[in-house]
Structure formats: structure tokens, C-alpha cells
Design a protein that fits this description.
mainly alpha
């Protein structure tokens, strides 16, 4: 259960770090400091107020919310100042659908007794990854021509 809650955090922190890296690359260190400090303030507030009540779940919620707020602040700044167009389907819907397929299939395989092996998590991970790859190919997130050209994803 704990890993399932933390899995969502991995996606959000990836987006947060990417947006922070873009800001730092553009020389916007001051704004990067502001957004990161805002996120840390939120996280510290959750530690102070929620951890005594909810325990680890309070901390995980604080991590999720603080990282999401930081990523959103950075994304809004980048969109306004760079003029980049947000492709909602490409950036959010397709990765979210792949993530959901991994989560649902992995959870279903791990909780069922279809695979009676001691290492059923290896098989569950493998099947989930295969389903994610198929979904990525069907949604054209990854194209077969990209693998022939040596690219892992289309840009």
C-alpha cells in the first residue's frame, strides 16, 4: 500500500524537477528558489500539522501536494514567459493512461492468486510493463519508427 501511494509521487516529482531544471537553464534561479521554497513551506506545514494526526499518510500527502504545487507554479511561469503551448493530451492524458494501466494490472496480478509463485511480483511487473508498452504504441506515445531511428520517444 505504501509503495502505491509513493508511486504517484514519483510522477509528480519528475514533473517538478523537469520544470525546475528548465527554469534554472533559462537563468530564472530566483523564481526557481521562490517556487521550491513555496513547496517546502507546504511540506513543512504538513509535517507539523498532519504527521501527528495521520502519520506516514500525512507526510506522503504533504510530499504530493507540495511537489504538485511547485510543478504547477513552475509550469504556469514557463507557459507565460516562454510562450510554450501545453498539449494536454500528449503531456497528461497519455502518460496518465499508461500509469493507470501499470497500476491496475500490477495491483490485480499481485492481489490475485492466478500466479502461485513466490516471485509473482516479477511476473506482475513484466506483464504490467508489456501492457504499458502496448498502450504507449497504441496511443502513439512511442512510435515504431522512433526505435528504428534510435529515438526512444517522439519530440
Amino acid at each position: 500500500k505504501l509503495l502505491q501511494k509513493m508511486a504517484v509521487y514519483c510522477i509528480i516529482v519528475y514533473l517538478q524537477q523537469t520544470m525546475t531544471g528548465i527554469l534554472n537553464g533559462l537563468g530564472k534561479h530566483g523564481f526557481s528558489l521562490f517556487s521550491t521554497s513555496t513547496g517546502y513551506f507546504i511540506r513543512m506545514s504538513f509535517i507539523w500539522f498532519m504527521v501527528p494526526i495521520k502519520g506516514v499518510d500525512g507526510y506522503i500527502a504533504g510530499m504530493l501536494i507540495s511537489s504538485a504545487v511547485t510543478a504547477i507554479i513552475n509550469l504556469i511561469y514557463i507557459v507565460k514567459n516562454i510562450g510554450i503551448q501545453i498539449e494536454f493530451t500528449e503531456w497528461f492524458i497519455k502518460p496518465l493512461s499508461i500509469g493507470l494501466i501499470i497500476n491496475i494490472s500490477g495491483t490485480a496480478l499481485m492481489s490475485s492468486h492466478i500466479i502461485p509463485l513466490h516471485y509473482n511480483w516479477i511476473i506482475a511487473c513484466g506483464i504490467s510493463c508489456i501492457l504499458a508498452l502496448i498502450t504507449a504504441l497504441l496511443t502513439k506515445t512511442i512510435k515504431l519508427t522512433d526505435s528504428k531511428n534510435g529515438k526512444l520517444c517522439s519530440i
